[in-house]
Design a protein that fits this description.
The protein is of the alpha/beta class. The protein is built from nine helices and seven strands, in the order αβαβαββαβαββαααα. β1, α2 and β2 form a beta-alpha-beta unit.
Length: about 230
């Protein structure tokens, strides 16, 4: 079982039901079933191939009667009253935003969102904080040599993040995490490269506004160092 899956499982509370959106091989709902999660389990995917793979995973483990499989785009096939935890992992932050944006019913305090963007985590955090979601927990996991962000969110709260924290997650939540320094260094290198690119452009003056934003974010990242 990979580290990201283990980390996701640790964030899922017992409840009435979990839907795993973009389930791929169905490892998460199968693992929950194997751990005797008490509620309903749903595996959803937009593509028939991955959904068939998820069904095989469940069948091989003798769990095919424990999981419902939904061929659907995002949360389109989910009955809101059947779940209280929504897991969306392994896709871009902008794609996750689109899924949540189409499912207005998830904007309710009864639902816990468990999210793991592969890219563009800053876009997802921006969407959450600007749509009245509180980011309730931040975590980091090292998998395949890459540090990934995982977080939970619930509608009806306030989370205040500066520009740099959109990329790293809340410094208050992650300051003591052993992987936080590596994440900070990665993002510092990222913004240093972007500043260097602007300074080396043929018309850097035209990018002065963008440069100021990047420089401010880089300074915030440095201020978060332990």
């Amino acid at each position: 079982m990979n580290q990201r899956l283990n980390a996701l499982l640790s964030l899922i509370p017992d409840g009435c039901g979990v839907i795993d959106v973009g389930t791929d091989h169905g490892c998460l709902p199968a693992a929950l079933a194997g751990r005797e999660y008490p509620g309903a389990l749903f595996a959803s995917d937009i593509r028939p191939g991955p959904l068939a793979a998820a069904e095989r995973t469940a069948r091989d483990a003798g769990l095919e009667n424990r999981i419902r499989f939904l061929l659907a785009d995002g949360l389109d096939g989910c009955e809101p009253e059947a779940v209280d935890t929504i897991v969306i992992a392994g896709m871009g932050g902008d794609t996750i935003c689109g899924i949540l944006d189409r499912a207005e019913w998830c904007m309710d305090r009864r639902y816990t969102l468990v999210l793991q963007p592969m890219t563009r985590a800053e876009v997802l955090r921006y969407w959450l904080v600007n749509n009245e979601f509180a980011i309730t927990h931040e975590d980091l996991v090292l998998d395949g040599g890459i540090v990934y962000s995982l977080f939970t969110a619930r509608f009806g709260g306030v989370t205040r993040l500066n520009e740099a924290e959109l990329y790293t997650g809340s410094c208050a939540m992650l300051r003591d995490h052993p992987l936080f320094p590596a994440l900070l260094k990665r993002e510092q290198r990222r913004f240093a490269r972007m500043l260097k690119g602007i300074d080396g452009a043929s018309s850097p003056g035209e990018l002065a506004g963008r440069r100021a934003v990047y420089a401010a974010i880089l300074e915030q990242l440095k201020e978060m160092e332990p």
